[in-house]
Amino acid sequence: MTTVLELDPAATALVGRAVEALAGRRIAVLTGAGVSTDSGIPDYRGKGAPTRTPMTAQQFLSSDAARRRYWVGSHLGWKAFAAASPNGGHLALAELERSGVASGVITQNVDGLHLRAGSRRVVELHGTMRRVYCTHCGQVFDRRDLAVRVEADNPWIAVPDNVELGPDGDVLPASSDGFVVPACSVCGGMLKPDVVFFGEYIPVDKFAEAEQLLSGSDALLVAGSSLVVNSGVRLVERARRRRLPIVIVNRGETRVDKKATVKIDAGTSEVLRALTTALASAG
After folding, report:
1. In what order do the strands lie in the sheet with 27-31?
2. Distance between CA atoms of 143 and 227, rounded to whole angstroms?
3. pLDDT on residue 58
4. Distance, CA of 252 to CA of 237 (rounded, Å)
5. Residue 61's Cα: distance from chain center in Å?
6. What distance in Å separates the CA atoms of residue 221 and residue 247, rounded to the nearest whole number?
7. pLDDT at position 281, please?
8. pLDDT, position 154
């Protein structure tokens, strides 16, 4: 069995079983917030994660005050969020794709770290914080350009060097009084981050893209997700119906542990590095 550094004997044995299940197969990867925790972005439900009450789509769209709170917090957190770097897990998955072992990554994350790590086929189920769009005319804006506008319109705003990030790159602002909410520079309409808010559905075409990636694969590797969100469970169920091997890497329980061929309860960065090395040797 391949020796795996940074893992205890039990996890090392499970990695060996996972390699046996995955070797020689084309692997679709599904990732959640746990993949990005080693990059300094906290997850939603992991051990020690703070209780959060994220803004819903209805609140954002219907309340001027809610939008002010959102944009202040989002701007304060965005620079630190955007500065996060891909970790060993992201890099390992990019290597799996380059080697032809992985068919691509389906991610529930909005941080863009898979793309920055070098993964080429990435389905961002919940959208991305890199873009903002106008809900009226559809014009799309780069988040970096919008940040310049926000600071020009709100010169008083302070961007701390160290902020307490949320999984979506936001922080809880002390106050939003006086904040000028950015508007579309084309039509003056309402701007919204290109992400799926709580209370919104994943676009049909985006989920179809994820299904297509899975349908062209022979196995499913789930990393860093507790699979509380139904979209992830639906993809696991599709893999189960096809009797594909399902390997889950996550600290703590998930909703579908009983459906897994192998479940590894350990950190994603070290396990994904170990799997990548072992699968390369097995190939």
Report:
1. 122-124, 102-107, 27-31, 219-223, 246-249, 262-264
2. 28
3. 93
4. 20
5. 23
6. 5
7. 82
8. 86
Checking if the pLDDT of 49 tops 70, the result is: no
Q: Which residues of 100-117 are buried (b: 16+ CB within 10 A; e: fewer)?
A: ebbbbbbbbbbbbbbbeb
> What is the C-alpha to C-alpha distance for residues 105 and 35, in angstroms, rounded to an integer?
12
Q: Which tokens go with 90?
A: 């992201």
Residues serving a catalytic function are 126
Would the pTM count as exceeding 0.70? yes
Nearest in space to 236 (alpha carbons), one of 251, 219, 252, 249: 219
Can you give the pLDDT at residue 176? 62
Cα 156 to Cα 74, 160, 171, 197, 245, distances in angstroms: 16, 12, 17, 28, 54
Task: Return the beta strands (E) in the chain as ranges.
Answer: 27-31, 102-107, 122-124, 127-134, 140-142, 191-195, 219-223, 246-249, 262-264
- What pLDDT was estimated at residue 53? 66
**What pLDDT shows up at residue 166?**
55
Terminal C-alpha separation, the chain: 14
* Cα 35 from Cα 160, distance rounded (Å): 25
Given a cut of 70, is residue 249 above it in pLDDT?
Answer: yes
Q: What is the pLDDT of residues 103-143, one digit of tens each?
A: 999 999 999 999 999 999 999 999 998 999 999 999 999 99
**Is pLDDT above 80 for 271?**
yes
In this structure, what token pair is assigned to residue 113? 């770290």
* Helix orientation angle between 230-241 and 204-215, rounded to the nearest 10 degrees: 30
Residue 188 backbone zone (phi > 0: left; psi -120 to 50: alpha; other: beta)? left
